């Protein structure tokens, strides 16, 4: 119970801190909005083009905007010198990781709700009928992205070119997850049978579990010194 | 705790950054209630030693036990009994003083947190600024709040790295009173300082660190302040500041 309370204290601190400035949420939402707008003009919403590209567009908006939040997760702690304060608290590195990861996950979910709303209007797609399966895919994708991203955010926070380094580290590893997300979203958005997304769901679940396990095993070494 | 009842015990501590050796075979033992001030010129390794003692950094070789906990393995338990103050305040600028203390209090699972926050914030003289954001605080006020943060869980041992940085004269006097109170309560304190007069006024033991070597450590009751200063300048090669009379 104490462990959960401490993890929650980190999440609360990140949310309270962000709500004061809204720097991260605003920039994430604005960026995803711009991505959707740019693609909307680029692909001239002809139905054929849309069918092929729309799920990719959605995930490009989610992932690139999410990356902005990830960079700040540990970067801000390092810049402001608060990371040592966090490391001096009586909590395991895994607890710190979970707190930061849940914070990133929550910020991404807020950005995704905003992005989905804009997406439905701009691309004229009614997502209400398949909200549940789409929500599940987005949940698994966001969890996976926050899981990997938090690890690499801690790793890249010490480097000078933090944002570039984060992209270089996160994207290659996320490729299998991104493919699974885009394929599953495509099937859902264009009325495919729910059974068709099962193989992709399995990949996503496996991906999330493997990287959570890896984070559990390695995070202590990553934030040391 | 070790068989000799040392609350802090360092054996053969070496720290290297790449090819550069920052600490060389440091041996150090302190008993409960000791207040050790580490003096030394810039680059002597004082901050590195404090970071290793507080488990923020791992030694290259050697062992460190704090209150019986090995800093390499028992970090979570160790962190419950230590408080660290450095020139970095570890405070969140976007949060208020109260919110910062609430966060750290929750992390340390402090009982009766609300009362404890009021107590420590009163102790550092910031009662009227409880709900102000830290970013509106002066450097000295932030350092005072940092003291409140470090004592919120009532630790047994303090590691202080140049704690007077940024404090005005009033803040220095207040902080000295707090340190004296802790010393009288039997808390163990390790502090680094450039300021010989201020450090010697507080400490029960004084040590000199030079180029990563602990070249001197003595109980201050055995030596006068002037003698210690002579020893310090002798070891560090620094010159005494001339006193001009106008």
Folded structure, characterized:
The complex is a heterodimer of chains A (225) and B (246). Chain A is mainly α. Chain A has one domain. Helices cover 84% and strands 0% of the residues of chain A. In chain B, the strands form two sheets. A six-stranded mixed sheet of chain B has the order 6-7-8-3-9-10, with helices on both faces. A four-stranded antiparallel sheet of chain B has the order 2-1-4-5, with helices on one face. The longest helix of chain B is centred in the C-terminal third of the chain and has 16 residues. At the A-B interface, α1 and α4 of A face α2 and α3 of B.
Question: What are the key terms here?
Answer:
heterodimer; A: 225 residues; mainly alpha; 8 helices; globular; B: 246 residues; alpha/beta; six-stranded mixed β-sheet; four-stranded antiparallel β-sheet; 35% helix
Short description:
The complex is a heterodimer of chains A (225) and B (246). With 225 residues, chain A is mainly α.
Largest chain-chain contact?
Answer: A-B, 25 and 29 residues
Q: Please state the average pLDDT score of chain A.
A: 89
Structural class of chain B: alpha/beta
**Global shape of chain A:** globular
Overall number of strands of chain A: 0
């Amino acid at each position: 119970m104490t462990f959960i309370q401490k993890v929650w204290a980190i999440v609360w601190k990140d949310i309270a801190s962000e709500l004061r400035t809204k720097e991260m949420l605003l920039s994430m939402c604005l960026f995803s909005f711009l991505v959707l707008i740019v693609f909307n003009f680029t692909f001239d919403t002809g139905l054929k083009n849309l069918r092929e590209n729309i799920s990719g567009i959605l995930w490009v908006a989610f992932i690139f905007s999410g990356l902005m939040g990830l960079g700040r997760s540990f970067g801000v702690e390092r810049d402001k010198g608060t990371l040592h304060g966090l490391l001096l608290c009586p909590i395991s590195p895994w607890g710190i990781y979970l707190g930061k990861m849940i914070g990133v996950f929550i910020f991404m979910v807020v950005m995704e709700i905003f992005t989905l709303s804009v997406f439905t209007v701009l691309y004229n797609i009614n997502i209400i009928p398949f909200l549940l399966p789409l929500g599940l895919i987005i949940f698994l994708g966001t969890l996976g992205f926050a899981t990997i991203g938090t690890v690499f955010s801690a790793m890249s926070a010490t480097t000078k070119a933090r944002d570039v380094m984060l992209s270089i580290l996160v994207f290659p590893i996320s490729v299998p997850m991104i493919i699974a997300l885009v394929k599953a979203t495509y099937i859902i958005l264009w009325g495919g049978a729910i059974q068709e997304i099962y193989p992709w769901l399995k990949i996503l679940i496996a991906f999330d579990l493997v990287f959570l396990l890896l984070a559990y095993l390695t995070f202590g070494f990553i934030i040391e010194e | 705790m070790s068989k000799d009842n040392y609350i802090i015990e360092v054996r053969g501590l070496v720290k290297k950054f790449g090819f550069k050796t920052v600490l060389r075979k440091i041996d150090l033992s302190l008993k409960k209630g000791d207040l050790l001030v580490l003096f030394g010129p810039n680059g002597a390794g004082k901050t590195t030693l404090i970071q290793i003692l507080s488990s923020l950094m791992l030694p290259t070789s050697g062992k460190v036990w704090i209150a019986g906990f090995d800093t390499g393995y028992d970090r979570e338990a160790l962190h419950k009994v230590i408080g660290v103050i450095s020139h970095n305040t570890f405070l969140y600028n976007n949060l208020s003083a109260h919110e910062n203390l609430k966060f750290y209090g929750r992390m340390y699972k402090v009982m009766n947190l609300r009362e404890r926050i009021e107590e420590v914030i009163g102790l550092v003289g910031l009662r009227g600024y409880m709900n102000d954001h830290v970013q509106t605080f002066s450097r000295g006020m932030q350092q005072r709040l940092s003291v409140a943060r470090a004592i919120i869980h009532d630790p047994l041992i303090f590691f202080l790295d140049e704690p007077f940085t940024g404090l005005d004269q009033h803040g220095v006097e207040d902080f000295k009173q707090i340190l004296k109170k802790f010393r009288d309560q039997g808390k163990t304190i390790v502090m680094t300082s450039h300021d010989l007069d201020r450090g010697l006024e507080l400490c029960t033991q004084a040590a000199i660190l030079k180029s990563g070597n602990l070249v001197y450590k003595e109980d201050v009751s055995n030596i006068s302040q002037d003698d210690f200063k002579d020893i310090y300048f002798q070891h560090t090669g620094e010159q005494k500041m001339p006193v001009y009379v106008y």
